[in-house]
Amino acid sequence: MATVIELGAVEGFILDDPIAGVLDNTVYTLGGTVFKDITSSVISATTSRGKNRDLDRFSAGTLNIVANNEDRAFDPNYAASPYAGAIVPRREVRVTVDGERVISTTIDDWNYSYTPDGNSRAEIIATDEFTLLARQVLTAGTATPQLSGARVSAVLDMVSVAWPEDKRSIDTGESTFGADEFDGNVLQYLQKVSESEQGLLFIAKNGDLVFRDRLDATPTTDSLTAFADDGTGIPFTLTAVNYGSELLYNQAIVTSGDLSAQADNDRSQIAYGVTSYELDTLVSTQAQLQNIADFLVQKYGDPEYRFETISVNLDTVGAANKATVLGLEIGDVVSIKFTPNDIGDPIEQFGQIIRIGHELEPSRHDMFISVASLDWTFLVLDDAVFGTMGVNHLAF
Questions:
Q1: pLDDT for 37-75, tens place per residue?
Q2: Would strands 176-177 and 146-147 be described as parallel, antiparallel, or unpaired?
Q3: For 367-381, what is each residue's pLDDT tens digit?
Q4: I need a labelling partner for 369 at 20 to 30 A (CA). Which of 56, 134, 255, 309 fits?
Q5: What is the distance between the alpha carbons of residues 95 and 255, in angstroms, rounded to a whole number?
């Protein structure tokens, strides 16, 4: 498997320099960042992007790399290092497998360990640009009444944020927001936008900021990836099953400024007692608040049994399946078929991907996929599974 791990070095064009100032050279470019292959020194790498459960907010993606440093290649005090000048925080580091980007991050820390016998290691700890957004503050002002996608773009365009135009993928949005005041942390505000939309906000594996509105985030079976333990889908190992009340809510109180809406699932409250969920949003009308509240108490009104996490050994599934699995992204829909101990009928579930992780070593590559249950979701017209009227699907 062709895994490439690259470290970004700033080797920009320098006017009048006899080496770095030569026009049209391919090393000292006007862009400034040159990626250097460090794969041969890497002992292991682990990545994780997403969230742990459906109602959580997406967190910053992480990349941890352990590299051999016996030749001092990753020592910031060693001038002869081939990466001299790049062994500092806030440099880009990225992982690509078979031409498919796995994660794009920026280094937060370098850690070093040394032993008397010369067994030296360098550890790279990196996160995606959610970490940067969490350190930025909104430019003060009054927001224009607008759809959720326009609100995301307005934040990214702020002088205090200045997110690149070519590093974003923003849906139009379905929810309408009012003229609230911009104040506080950028990431927390954008996450509130996403919750108000009931959509998805995350950093993609290529480093783009992605905002998917609730219609685009709604699952379909058009391009479904199937995992199965009976030979009818991509083979996998089931690593975690969850069945409990951590996502059991049968009363929802949804607010926005002075507006408030409440919904109750009476059947669930009789069966399990009252468990309440509160959500503060940016939506501008009572009708939108009530729609969100109604949806929440239906979706989370029963204990959830779900295949929480599966793992796939990418070295053993064949080239076509490997490419399919590597191509998956947060928000994609998968089906999982599993027969416990090969006894009885198989259990088959649909899930929407909420977390993707990788464990890479020179001799093995495992990919981990965590999903949210799709027992309740928005109605998708004409879809064979999610378009069936009256079967756990709600128009919004």
A1: 999 999 999 999 999 999 999 999 999 999 999 999 999
A2: antiparallel
A3: 999 999 887 655 554
A4: 134
A5: 41
Residue 90, both tokens:
């806030």
CA distance linking residue 201 with residue 181, whole number of Å:
21
What pTM, to 2 d.p., does this model score?
Answer: 0.89
Its CATH class, for the domain covering 133-212, is alpha beta
Q: Residue 32 contacts by C-beta under 8 Å, 6 or more apart in sequence? A: 10, 11, 12, 13
Instruction: Flag whether pLDDT at 221 surpasses 70.
Output: no
- Which of 95-99, 210-214, 223-227, 291-295 is the least confident region? 223-227
- Give me the mean pLDDT over the 302-327 stretch: 95
- Say which residue the tokens 């503060």 belong to: 280
Q: What is the pLDDT of residue 217?
A: 57
The whole-angstrom separation of Cα 94 and Cα 360 is 13
Measured between its terminal Cα atoms, the distance across the chain in Å is 44
Tell me if 192 sits within 8 A of 227, measured CB to CB: no
Tokens representing residue 11 in the block: 């080797």
Is residue 361 a contact partner of residue 44, using CB atoms and an 8 Å limit? yes
190, two tokens: 């954008």
Q: Could you give the C-alpha distances from 211 to 161, 265, 383, in angstroms and in order? A: 16, 30, 23
Alpha carbon distance 219, 39 (integer Å): 36
